[in-house]
Amino acid sequence: MGALAQHAGIAQNALRRLFSSPISGFLNIIVIGIALCLPSGMYVLMQNAQGLLAEVSASPQISLFLTMDANAEDIATLRKQLAQNPAIGKAVFVPRADALKNLAQSNGLADVIAGLESNPLPDAFVVSPRATRAQALDLLRNQLQKIPHVDLAQLDSAWIYKLEAMLDFARILTFILAGLLSLALVAITFNTIRLQIMTQKDEIQVAKLIGATNSFVRRPFLYLGAMQGMLGGITAWLIIVLCLHFLKQPVSTLSRLYGSNFALQPLSAADSLTLMLFSLYLGLMGAWLSVARHLSEIEPR
Amino acid sequence: MISFNQVSKRYPGGFEALKNVSFDLAKGEMAFLTGHSGAGKSTLLKLIAAIERPNSGSVLVNNQNVSALKNAALPFLRRNIGMIFQDHKLLFDRSVFDNVQLPLQICGFDHRETAKRVRAALDKVGLLGREKANPIALSGGEQQRLCIARAIVNRPSILLADEPTGNLDAEYTQEIMKIFDSFHQVGATLLISTHDAGMLKGVRTINLRHGEIATESSGKITGAAS
Known about the structure:
- The complex is a heterodimer of chains A (about 300) and B (about 230).
- Chain A has ten helices and four strands, in the order ααβαβααβαβαααα.
- Chain A is of the alpha+beta class.
- Chain A has two domains: about 1-55 and about 160-295, no CATH class; about 60-155, 2-Layer Sandwich (Alpha-Beta Plaits).
- In chain A, strands 2-3-1-4 form a four-stranded antiparallel β-sheet.
- The two termini of chain A are about 35 Å apart.
- Chain B has about 230 residues and is of the alpha/beta class.
- Chain B has two domains: about 1-80 and about 160-225, P-loop containing nucleotide triphosphate hydrolases (Rossmann fold), CATH 3.40.50.300; about 90-155, no CATH class.
- Chain B has a six-stranded mixed β-sheet with strand order 6-7-8-3-9-10, sandwiched between helices. Chain B has a four-stranded antiparallel β-sheet with strand order 2-1-4-5, covered by helices on one side.
- In chain B, strand 7 (about 160), helix 6 and strand 8 (about 190-195) form a beta-alpha-beta unit.
- In chain B, helix 3 (about 95-105) crosses helix 4 and helix 4 crosses helix 5 (about 140-150).
- Chain B is globular.
- Chain B starts with a strand and ends in a 9-residue tail after the last strand.
- Residues about 220-225 of chain B have low confidence and may be disordered.
- The chains are: A alpha+beta (about 300), B alpha/beta (about 230).
């Protein structure tokens, strides 16, 4: 109980010191908050992009265009073959006549099509694979391409490749950003604690003269660093929550216009906790480095 | 309790503050340390609390070789030594009460015991009514007494005072000597540096000159001089 009360006292003291000059105290915390909210915000956006990617790539399609000489019998064999393939969820046959009709309706090409002597479109299957990963899809496409009477197997996944590559790029960028800004946080704390040690120089000297151990002298500064880090983390969290709140409406409007019911996902509880603990830890680390560097310089004379 | 054996201290730059100093101070003994300014009085006191380390010889406190103590052991040596500084070393960002409770906080006393001891110490030096004041508002004599309260609150067995009456008038000096005497009565070991010859009646006096013990006048108990 005594030890606990003592720690509570030190924590309270650290909080008071943190805001002993309120403006610079708040500025420090805001700087840390902004530094942290950049990588965490990017992380949130990436999580969302990944969700979006999963949603759209959940229904990839492969179009199988048949050769013009494929007859009804060939088509029936093919239909059976596709139904038996375990990698394929569904295969819908689109007769060439229907395809032409659809084209005429949808694209306003009715006049052009009416002028054609014969139907230039081939019969086709629209295949829905079970796999969603780009590589598995590509494999399936190559397999389908080799089937007799298949003229062309076309996968609509080139853009998924590109999106995935872009997400990989963004992920690495986020890591680099997170690393650099974590370093900045450590540096900010290092400096704050250095200044604090300088202003409390007399107190440290007196405490050492009357028998304070190093850990006693060190403790308030570690508390100060950890607390500043955590308050910075909370600030970052608030910034992200606020930004997501403001983005929510426009994003859902946009996705409705695209016929999707995609909605921005907020930061999960686990991620929020990780963010705060991580910033607390970084603050503690900065304080530790600073204390190790500067406290030994202050010896009583 | 305190034993110097052939102790020399040279500061960087070559100034030799103490040369071959040897003396013993028994448990419960009170002694004055006199000498001109620069004679090495402050250095001698600093060696006892291991604020400075000797270049040669040994300093024993409570049969412990202070000059060989590891840094991590120093706090525990110092908790047993009450120090009164010429420049007081008070903290002006906190109240009189908070200044006095610092040694108790360091030792981890709980709130109630701390408050009790702080009041007892302030009472002893006659500052009980000023516990909420800021030390900057105290007179020179009061600041000195506050410094004494901080030194004794922990009930150390050794009390070291560096020119405690340095710039006080005779009346204040008398008061402070009375406080020291009451500590002597309850069995503390005291070493007080001073250049005030009026204080010295009937008490053992070690006189330093240019870093060496020049004369030693014995009080009631005779220490072994080299």
